[in-house]
Amino acid sequence: MSVSIQQLRTEYKRLCRLLGTEGVLHAVPQAFGDPHVEIVCGKYHYVVSERGSECERKSTTDEGELLYWLISGVVHEKAGNFELKHRVKGRDFRRILFAKEIELMRRISDEWAERMADDIQKILAVHPYNDRLGGYLRRGPHKSIKARIGAERFKSRLRRVDR
Hints:
Blueprint: H1 5-18, E1 32-40, E2 43-50, E3 53-60, H2 63-85, H3 94-108, H4 110-126, H5 143-162
Antiparallel strand pairs: 1-2, 2-3
Helix pairs in contact: 1-2, 2-3, 3-4
């Protein structure tokens, strides 16, 4: 039997307080990418929409699973803010981010922290840490690559003009 949206809000707020933040659980779509929850026929739907377009939808009948998804977003945001303030030049930013995510999730539950650690290991198996780029992977391709490509295009244009 599913619980009401009000019961979910109460539990979500309690968990957010353990993280030192106030949480608002939405039941209608939000314009700026905040998740909302729908309860339809005893099933929970975690939905993220932005500017009227649905970006993500996950469904479950397990209240705990839904709360894990919701709290994971809060944990990621708090860990991201922490990482920005404590960034270490020359290190992949995810080293601090992931460690903080696990630390924060442990405030909620050891089981959830272990689950998050497993999820992080899956990410790292495909995308290992890369300290060579100085931890600034969010910027996209390395600037020297862009500069080289741009320089090559510029040189080829000059060659065409010279002919």
